[in-house]
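user: can you give me the structure for this one chain? tokens are fine.
assistant: on it. calling the predictor now.
[tool input]
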Amino acid sequence: MIKIRQEVPCDYAEVYELVKKSFATSSYSDGTEQDYLNELRKKDTFIQELSLVSENDEGKLIGQIVLYKMKIVSAEKEFVELVLSPICVHPDYFRRGIARALMEKAFEIAKNMDFKAVFLCGDPSFYRKIGFKPTFEYNIFHIDDKLRNAEYCMAHELIDGALRDISGTIDIE
């Protein structure tokens, strides 16, 4: 049984070590995810309510997720939605549904806060299982996607059809 709750400042040191350990086994990691998260918490785009952790029965942190604000820029206007980054699970708890549970809880909170979509850059084979689709299917493109077909830049609508009338460019760090 896991518990999911909002991250609080006294969790930061433990989360730092969790992120570091979790990404140490990833082929996608550049080794700076824990530092990225520390810097993210200082930015205006950070939303405390969308920074969650999961605990095991003993109260040890075994997972974390952060959603933060980003912009979709079109010729007419800017739209503010969310980016998921980072998310991690302690290696001892892989493949137990913890990442999915963290996303479901974060998406529920985000939807209640009137956000309509979540974006990320990640492994398509994993995130498609959660309902993410490449952003180009929505006519939204990552700023670095010169060919406009990046499978790794993905979006998940929190409300069906939310991205139907939006097009533009995003810059997910």
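assistant: here you go. Helices lie at 12-23, 33-40, 98-112, 124-127. The CA atoms of residues 50 and 67 lie 5 Å apart.
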